[in-house]
Amino acid sequence: MLFNSYIFIFLFLPISLLGWYGLNRIKKYQTAQIFLIVMSLWFYAYFNSSYLAVLLASCMANYLFSLILTQKPALCRPVLIMGCAVNLGLLGVFKYYDFFVENLNAVFHAGFTCRHILLPLGISFFTFQQLSYIIDRCRGRAPHYSLVDYLSFVTFFPQLIAGPIVLHTEIIPQFGDLEKRKFRIDDFAYGICYFVFGLAKKVLLADTLAGAVNYGFSEIAKLDAPAAAVVAVSFMLELYFDFSGYCDMAIGIGRMFGIRIPDNFNAPYRSASVKEFWKRWHMTLGRFFTQYVYIPLGGNRKGVCRTVLNTMIVFTLSGLWHGADWSFVLWGFLHGLGVSVNVIWLRLAPGTGRETQPGQGSFGKRLRHFGCQAATFGFVCLAFVFFRSDSVADGFLFMRRLFSGDSYHFVKYIADNLSYAELYVPTKLISMRFPAFLRDYRMYVYLAILGVSMVLALGKTTKERLEGRALTAAFSWKMTILFVWSVISLTGVSTFLYFNF
Hints:
Distance between the termini: 16 Å
Number of helices: 22
Shape: globular
Largest sheet: none
Number of strands: 0
Structural class: mainly alpha
Radius of gyration: 24 Å
Oligomer: single chain
Order of helices and strands: HHHHHHHHHHHHHHHHHHHHHH
Helix content: over 70%
């Protein structure tokens, strides 16, 4: 079920909220929690009921591992090995089996058959979430919870399908806090505003840019250099507004239920280095890899060479986590390379990282900071070309078109595929009165939307816009208009990009 759908906004969410607060109101706390689990399972099974068996099997297996540790703490190491094997094995079978077989056939000229297994929705997210719990259990940093609490942690629907990747310490104690079961108007209003901002990001910005991006990447061979640059920037903005919009909606829904979900984005395009970018982009994934892969490998404690090696391992694995294709692996490798360059540079020139703060220091330092921001954004755009491309070959073809030097106004043709129903009337009038100007008009609109999107991406985050703000009548009217505008725009068929991962 999509957050940006009529059935979710006008049926599922109201029923879930009424049931949750109604049962808590009459002090049926356990029943309320079970009700929320059932609703979350309905939410998950809405796309395909066969997904549900995989999710429940994964939950039961991990809960059993936790129970074994309670009964026999001495079995910590075997349970850790088994837990990692089961979770990563499940991910391997459903997500990487065909990838492994295709490469095995290519290298050894074998004839193994691909199974084309249907990828369960959100398997990468709920697998990592449970894996973090099992590792914490084996480290002695997590208690054994009741089955209801554990299922609430894993299946809580706002973050179930596409994150953020939450830790047990962030969610389960909140379900145990009876004060959070009470309806609080401030929390609820704050959650609605968060949801509306996220919905607007997704529907009004990400979905608007999607048509142009999809066309650009389907016609790579036809792109000239300016068009390739515009498509690369468009994709970065589409991806940001799509994923951060989903996370904003998840955080908002959580707040409506009295549950706080961690932030996942912090204005990543303000970053002045690739390392800073990954402290601001998909922060909960970065936290997982830092805590459960990078630090156990030795982190930065064993010299610069080992730090670089650990960084490259983490980012390559991060690329593979995103998708079973060499284009994702290359994408992760490139980001690892970018972060490693930052690490080496800071070792060679200590203190330089602290000087690049916006609005501080001399004009020269501020100028250098903005230069670093532009260079970082450029690098990220180039690396994400491989993230979006269907193959490594397509990614390199895109790069050749980007640096070809050709210019034959192909941006105009890309602009024809931009989705902006709100401008239907002026577009129709121009097509009737000035048909020769129509394509130029669409191009200018496209570039204007890109400019507005970039300003918004560099501007205040949703948290910065809402934190400490009084919910005045004027602000409430603005939220109402934005919500109605977004709901009216729910006409096209769309999904969230990170559902694929």
